[in-house]
Amino acid sequence: MIQPGTSATPPPFDKVAIVGLGLIGGSIALAIKQHWPSCLVIGVDQKDVLEQAMLRYAIDVAADDPVVMAEADLVILAAPVEQNIDLLAELDDCVTTRAIITDVGSTKRTTVEAAKQLPTRFTFIGGHPLGGAPRGGIRHARPDLFVGRPWLFTPDGEAVAEALECLSGFVRTLGAEPHVVDPAEHDRLLAFVSHLPQLTTSALMHVVGRATGERGLALTGRGLYDATRLASSPADIWRDICRSNADAIGPALDDLIAELQALRDGLDTNTEINRVFESAGEWRAKLAALSKPTKGSA
Amino acid sequence: MIQPGTSATPPPFDKVAIVGLGLIGGSIALAIKQHWPSCLVIGVDQKDVLEQAMLRYAIDVAADDPVVMAEADLVILAAPVEQNIDLLAELDDCVTTRAIITDVGSTKRTTVEAAKQLPTRFTFIGGHPLGGAPRGGIRHARPDLFVGRPWLFTPDGEAVAEALECLSGFVRTLGAEPHVVDPAEHDRLLAFVSHLPQLTTSALMHVVGRATGERGLALTGRGLYDATRLASSPADIWRDICRSNADAIGPALDDLIAELQALRDGLDTNTEINRVFESAGEWRAKLAALSKPTKGSA
């Protein structure tokens, strides 16, 4: 008999290890326990984070030492990108099985490249769930974070078809829509649709706050509030993203700076405002048509 | 006996003329009829807009000719900024009373300056309700648009104390919080908290859509969706805002461009990301504390 909220399909993995129980790692853990209560979830993080994860019944086994992952058949690296890369080098010592390894980092080329050094008993496929929420950390994790959202996979090389099938079914049960993307194409697209908006929003909030102080912030409509939702994103994750994708983010920033400069030079005329606003309005309408707001997203 | 939804206070004006029944003008009309059903609301706009306003019971008298305002004791100019300035020059011919005149434009210096030419029987006080919503037009108008939002007044010169008192009471009944600001200070602050975010958002959406197309837009998290909400704003209103406040918006754009360039040059290091993200996070927290989300705002 199937319990309410659990999946009809048997768990594709018996023991899933998740390193890094922030918003994404924590939400994956919660979703696994919801859909497959019999699946053992092993959490690796700092003690205070593990404590919160245990209290939320997100994990069954908790340790700050990666050796606890020894028997995992799926390892999910959910720390910031550069830590994930460091962890890849430790897997041979920590994991004794023929595990599938994936990650959830926001850039893919450097991680996919580093994973080439893994022992052949592991199968690595880079992953990137686009489940974002305005605030990070295990306390904002929720099992439905991925429902209706894309989950990108960047398989590299031969002989990963079976593992890809397995991971795709896994994230589909979590409610996500698996997509396959080339690692370089992933990083170029994400530089524009994710990294550029984040850097722009942070720079905007910084410039506005510095120029007007709280007096100005008190005199705002909804526009600034909506436009700066991303400005509370933590620097630590974004330092890694920017370093590992600098060659794609740089040109994206150049594009935006050029358009802002064109608007600045054309403030007195209609031409530039018309050109940019008309294009922006059309793309925004397409984005709205493509976006399916999910439950609980604000 | 007071009807549900109506105000206990008598209407401060008997006949209110509103020129321009878009989101703001239409919402003011709806709010007046809700709070003071006995107040006569005269709408001036194009015929198709007037028709929609009549169907929503927002106005009692409709005409596309401003002579219909002859006996108004309050005239609210709610067209784009440059049209409001043109209308100021016609008021002497159209309005025969000692009316109070106000506007709802997003920039104040040029309108306040133009109003100095009004006949002395009129009292002009510039106004700016910060009630914005993502989409304009009478069909998005609603009577609670101003509830809990600031309504800025920019009185200029002597002998407007009584009119300011009257207008403040008027917008307070509409649920807004009246504030008095110097016109130049208004335009400088709004260049940062409103005009810069709008231009940045439009430029961002344009750059992202152009670079990635629908393929990229389909692979996004909530971040881009939230960050580009303003990108559907209409160009016509913003052309006037940019022209009438170019000398304040220009330096604001310069500030942002300089910060984006600093981030671009520092993508490989921690220093710039740390500096901008930490400042942005602090200002965003202050903005969130100052913002009181209103009913129905998305």
Give the helix/strand layout.
The structure is a homodimer of 298-residue chains.
Chain A: E1 15-19, H1 23-35, E2 40-44, H2 47-55, E3 61-63, E4 74-77, H3 81-94, E5 100-103, H4 109-115, E6 123-129, E7 150-154, H5 161-173, E8 177-180, H6 183-218, H7 222-227, H8 235-244, H9 246-265, H10 271-290
Parallel strand pairs in A: 1-2, 1-4, 2-3, 4-5, 5-6, 7-8
Antiparallel strand pairs in A: 6-7
How would you classify the quaternary structure?
Answer: homodimer
- What is the spatial order of strands in the main beta sheet of chain A? 3-2-1-4-5-6-7-8
Which percent range describes the beta-strand content of chain A? 5-15%
Distance between the termini of chain A: 35 Å
Order of helices and strands of chain A: EHEHEEHEHEEHEHHHHH
Mean pLDDT of chain A: 92
**Class by helix and strand content of chain A?**
alpha/beta
Which spans of chain A of ≥5 residues are poorly predicted at pLDDT below 50? Answer: 294-298
Beta strands of chain A, count: 8
Name the pair of protein chains with the most residues at their interface, and give those residue counts.
Answer: A-B, 95 and 95 residues
Radius of gyration of chain A: 21 Å
Share in helix of chain A: 40-55%
Largest sheet of chain A: 8 strands, mixed
